[in-house]
Task: structure prediction
Amino acid sequence: MSEDDDTTAAEASLRRAVEQLCGDGPGDGSEAAQEAVHALSDGSGQAWTPEQETQIRAMVEQIRKLRDLNRPGGGWWRRRREWRARERLVDMMEAGGPELVNEAELRHWKSHMMVELLLEFSGGAMKPDDTTKVLSRMETLQAATYEDLQQAQKRLAERKAAG
Result:
């Protein structure tokens, strides 16, 4: 498959993701966004066993649930559900080990950033330059490592402390 074919597949996946996120198609766009990311990725990531993949995906889902529950308001029942979700996440983290936890955190962050990128892109009329720009930003996001995430979080913490 040539590079042009890869770009065309990525652009088609990107358009489907944007349509689904805008409500023009079925679903929430997450599957189409993942398809766009896979079309862009070169497969050079760490190879996880199927069991590890399952653990990572479960941790990512638990992180999502916990962050959804951890918002103001909601009363006693939500706090109780949040507490239970936090306990389940801690149990998963202890069972999985630090490498799997780091990978789950990185995947959650990438997923969140991908949705923000697609929503920003879908906010206006699409131009050919926009597609190229978004594809390059998606490639950069896909290439990010856990160390990159840690450095970015450290810089943000330093800025908050200084300002």
Observations:
- Residues 98-122 form the longest helix (25 residues).
- The chain is about 80% helix and 0% strand.
- The helical segments are 3-21, 30-40, 50-69, 75-96, 98-122, 128-143, 146-162.
